[in-house]
Amino acid sequence: MAGKITGADPLRVLLIEDSQPDAERLERELRGQSFDPRFRRIETEEELGEALNEAWEVVIADYSAPACGALRALAIVKERAPDLPVIVVSGHVGDDALVGAMKAGAADYVMKGHLSRLGPAIRRELEDAGSLRSQRETERARRAAEERFRFVVENTGEVLYRLHFDTMTYDYIGPGLERLTGFTADEMNAGGFAIRIVRIDHQPDGSPRPKALGEWSGRKAEDSWADYLFRTKSGELRWLSDHSSAWRDDQGSLLGSVGVLTDITERKRAEEALRKSEERYRQIVETAHEGVWVIDGSGTTTYVNHRMAELLGLGVEEMSGRSLYEFVDEAAKDEVRAQLRQRSSGVAAQLEFCFRRPDGSPLWTLLSASPMFDENGSFVGTLAMVADIRYRKLLEEQLRQSQKMEAVGRLAGGIAHDFNNLLGVILGYGDLLLRRIQDESLRTRLEQMVKAGERAAVLTRQLLVFSRKQVLEPRVLDLGFLVTEMEKLLGRLIGEDVHLNVITADGLGRVRADAGQLEQVLMNLALNARDAMPTGGRLTIETANVALDESYAAAHPGVTPGPHVMMAVSDTGSGMNADTVRRVFEPFFTTKKPGQGTGLGLATAYGIVKQSGGHIEVYSEPGHGTSFKIYLPRVDEEAEPLVAGPKLAPPRGTERVLLVEDDQALRQLARQILEEHGYAVIEALSGLPALEQAKAYAGPIHLVLTDVVMPGMGGRELAERLSAVRAELKVLFMSGYTEEAIVRHGVLPEGSVFIQKPFGPDSLLTKVREALDRAGG
User: Fold this and answer.
1) Per-residue CA distances from 294 to 74, 307, 321, 608 (Å)
2) CA 226 to chain centre
3) Which letter does DSSP use for residue 470 in this model?
4) How many other CB atoms sit within 10 Å of the CB of residue 253?
5) Pairwise CA distance, residues 287 & 14, whole Å
6) Using CA atoms, how far apart are residues 514 and 763, in angstroms rounded to an integer?
7) 85/82 Cα distance (integer angstroms)
8) Alpha-carbon distance values, 557 to 134, 400, 402, 406 (Å)
9) Angle of CA points 424, 427, 433, to nearest 5°
């Protein structure tokens, strides 16, 4: 019981007494002294040990109790309940025995003859015991707090310290110091801290290196910190964070610093890993082949990488803070705004945008745009990956141009084929009439009619060349020899005010092409160059061996990579703008005045080169002349001589000819020409009737003269089927053009003879005789 005892206070008393009368006497005495005792009387040590399991306020022990005397009871109580007061009572022992009991730990002693002292003694002991318990509880609490603090200090990753600036020694360093640094507190006090520091972060510029932990930060500020890269005693580098505050006395004078030392090595490693990761990301972004463009919700540029700035021809600083719309082509701005509004709703997209560079040139891009949101889910901008697709757009334009040229060629070829049949009839009958009419006035008019028909035939032949449906007679050529042979002719064509320069490479490779058609190409290009230099200039024709690689072939559809022979025709004339260059090979396109050109010269050149398996390219700028470059595949064969045979008069004949032509007028003309020159003719309008007539006719048939393209069965199939039953039969093909399915790439079938429509009587008769006189079937 703590505090002062007043009134009839309840009192729990453990009484060690062998005499029941003495026990009752003690109870009466206490009740008489205003106590309300709750007694338990025991006699033996076993009972005492069991009773101490309960809570008591005082123990009264008879000194001479035979089974558990006071001295023995004191020893047991002090061991089990050291704060429980024990008062010894006795009736006859001497003073020495009682003094011995006091030394053994008794709180007081009372003689049974003077029990009036018992109440005051109990009250005094209870009050002292309460005060002592309070002190002991306070001490226990303090020790428990210290123990908890020590546990935290010893088991946390932090080290507490306090530094005296006057002596530059630590009066306290937490026990974790040695674990962190390998140094003991004594070793730290002995100095050498500064030389172990490799690097200090957040140290003010010009501040000296600290001599001791906490010295720099504590002197400079009430609350400061620094990070040290520290070399531990074992030589390991570890990062330590020092957070210190000023330590002052009651008058505010600075005594030193108190601080916390924390091992932040793992944090620093994580920060370094993050820094390296960010650096790698920055390097990836900055060196990416694609542009990276970040804009905020209003379209303002917040970031671009160097590639994006390079694509637009600007610096990164020039783009930062500027609106995206400043760089968008005017025609595309409304679409861009609409697309960006969609990004704000969270939709990603891939779009084609045309930006405008500062020099006015277009920049076609494929833009992959993704919305960006903050931690609250609010739209904050757009991230765009921007790919340059100008090269792809160029290829698409080339493909469209190629497809357009192909379509125009098909149309032109179809028209020319039908027109050739009509011209064949007109020219054929015109030639026959000229042979018979003697009246000069009529002959003059008839000759003008035939000449007009011949000019029309030239135009249709050019259309067929452009459409690549003109049948060629290719041979292995030395292109340098061909150019040299034409030098004089070209010089006369272009005139004296244009200087002609011919450069042929040594060791020039061979090509396979139709010599006459290549001469036509060269003349067309030379005449165009002359027209581009009305006041004179220079025309250069040069040849060279070149190798077209995969990248060139990829950029020019239809080109096969490998060795080629190049022929370049360059002039110093007026040149052409980009729009003209795009259309320069279109049939009937011309920049000349009406009546000065048909617009078929370059179209014809284009068709001949393409049909020969080559490629033609034009380079031109206004005021800087024009250069046409022709590339033909190189072949490893010897060139064939360009020698023309003597022209013979068309001979007569007596052989039988099977004439197969679906155009009735042309068929009748051909029959008349043949019969007038001695030939016997069997005619058929198409392949199947011709096959039946050949089977039905019992006599010999020496030659089949057949159109190539006819309804039902074509001329080539007819010839093959007839040859199977008449091995001696000769074949002469005729056509306005030959489709690829019948004569692949315009090359004649092996061993065949061909005549081009329209033809005159002499041409027909010569070809018929040539076919009949050839050896073999």
Assistant:
1) 88, 13, 11, 52
2) 42
3) S
4) 7
5) 92
6) 19
7) 8
8) 103, 11, 9, 13
9) 135
- Contact between 188 and 159 under an 8 Å Cβ cutoff? The reply is no
Name the E strands within 180-319: 197-201, 223-231, 237-248, 254-263, 291-296, 301-304
Q: Are 422 and 563 in contact (CB under 8 A)?
A: no
SS3 378: coil
Asked if 231 and 193 touch (Cβ cutoff 8 Å), the reply is no
pLDDT tens-digit profile of 149-196?
777 666 666 888 888 888 878 888 887 788 888 888 788 777 666 566
CA dihedral of residues 590, 419, 670, 676 (deg, nearest 10): -60
What distance in Å separates the CA atoms of residue 318 and residue 451, rounded to the nearest whole number?
69
Provide the β-strand partners of residue 201.
Answer: 227
How far, in Å, CA of 539 to CA of 519, rounded?
A: 16
> DSSP string covering 394-457, please?
HHHHHHHHHHHHHHHHHHHHHHHHHHHHHHHHHHHHHHHHHHH---HHHHHHHHHHHHHHHHHH
CB 648 within 8 A of CB 523: no
Per-residue b or e along 363-399, where b marks 16 or more CB atoms closer than 10 Å to that residue's CB: bbbebebebbeeeeeeeebbbbbbbbbeeeeeeeeee
Q: Report the candidate in 473, 413, 424 with the shortest Cα–Cα distance to residue 754.
A: 473
Kindly report the three-state secondary structure assignment for every residue of 90-149. ECCCCHHHHHHHHHCCCCEEEEHHHHHHHHHHHHHHHHHHHHHHHHHHHHHHHHHHHHHH
Q: Which residues, in sequence order, are CB contacts of 481 under 8 Å at separation 6+?
A: 639, 642
Q: At what angle do helices 515-531 and 601-611 cross, to 10 degrees?
A: 150
Q: Whose CA is closest to 757, among 679, 658, 669, 684?
A: 669
The CB-based long-range contact list for 272-277 (8 Å cut-off, 24+ gap) reads none
Burial 174-201 (b: 16+ CB within 10 A, else e): bebbbebbbbebeebbeeebbebbeebe
Query: Do the beta carbons of residue 434 and residue 443 sit within 8 Å?
Result: yes
Strand 626-635 and strand 615-620: pairing? antiparallel
Q: What is the reported pTM?
A: 0.39
CA distances from 673 to 18, 157, 653, 666 (A): 170, 117, 12, 11
Cα–Cα distance for residue pair 494/5, rounded to 1 Å: 143
Written as six digits, the tokens of 251 are 């008058």
pLDDT in the model for residue 632: 92
pLDDT at 245: 85
Beta bridge partners of 213: none
Write the single-letter amino acid at 496. Answer: E
Specify the residue for token string 């024709």: 541
Could you tell me which residues are beta bridge partners of residue 242?
226, 261
* DSSP per-residue letters across 302-350: EEE-HHHHHHHTS-HHHHTT-BGGGTB-GGGHHHHHHHHHHHHTT--EE
The answer to whether 694 touches 659, Cβ cutoff 8 Å, is: no
Rounded Cα–Cα distance for residues 39 and 21 (Å): 14
> Could you tell me if 312 and 355 are in contact, meaning their C-beta atoms sit under 8 angstroms apart?
yes
CA distance 162 to 751: 112
Q: What's the pLDDT tens digit per position in 195-213?
A: 667 776 654 444 455 555 5
**Angle, in degrees to the nearest 10, between helices 761-773 and 664-676:** 70
Which regions of the chain are under pLDDT 50? 1-7, 203-207, 216-221, 466-469, 595, 643-646, 738-747
First-to-last C-alpha distance (Å) of the chain: 144
290 secondary structure, DSSP code:
S
Sheet holding 86-90, edge to edge: 35-42, 9-16, 58-62, 86-90, 108-111
One-letter amino acid for residue 198 of the chain: V
> Distances from the Cα of 742 to the Cαs of 524, 739, 759, in angstroms?
29, 6, 21
